[in-house]
Amino acid sequence: VHVVESGGGVVQPGDSLRLSCTASRATLDFYAVGWFCQAPGKEREVVASVSSAGSTFYADSVKGRFTVSRDSAKNSAYLQMNNLKREDTAVYYCATSGDYTPDPLKNVDDATYWGQGTQVTVSS
C-alpha cells in the first residue's frame, strides 16, 4: 500500500484545512486509516482515525474541531481541521493498518503503511 497525503499549508489561528490521503495498489476502505501528527521535539501521536468498519477515534485535543472521513469512490480519506490552533502545528501523516481492522488506530504501533507527511503550520 502506497500512501500519499496532501493539503498541508500555512494558515492563521481559527482557519480551516482539509488534508487528503490516497492509496495506490490497494482499496483504502479495506484498511483502518489514521491521521497522526508530530511536532518538533515531540513523539508522533494519533489525531484521528477511522476503522475498516467505520468507527472513529479522536484525540481529546481535537474533538469537536477535526473530522475524519472517507470517500470510497475516490479511494481517499480526509481530515477536516477547523478552528486550527497554534498548537496544531506539526507534520501530519496518514497511515493505514496492515489488514482489515475493525477498531480505529489509536497508537503509532497500530499502523503499518505510512505516507511521507505534510506540514501544517498555524501562525498569525
Protein topology:
Blueprint: E1 2-6, E2 9-11, E3 17-24, E4 33-38, E5 45-50, E6 56-58, E7 66-71, E8 76-81, E9 90-96, E10 113-114, E11 118-122
Parallel strand pairs: 2-11
Antiparallel strand pairs: 1-3, 3-8, 4-5, 4-9, 5-6, 7-8, 9-10, 9-11
Q: How can the largest sheet be summarized? A: 7 strands, mixed
Please report the number of helical segments.
Answer: 0
Q: How confident overall, as mean pLDDT?
A: 96
* Structural class estimated from helices and strands: mainly beta
Low-pLDDT parts are none
Distance between the termini: 37 Å
Tell me the strand percentage band. Answer: over 45%
Helicity, as a percent range:
under 10%
Structure description:
The protein is mostly beta strands. 0% of the residues lie in helices and 46% in strands. It has no helices and eleven strands. It has strands at residues 2-6, 9-11, 17-24, 33-38, 45-50, 56-58, 66-71, 76-81, 90-96, 113-114, 118-122. Strands 2, 4, 5, 6, 9, 10 and 11 form a seven-stranded mixed sheet that branches. The chain is globular. The protein starts with a strand and ends with a strand.
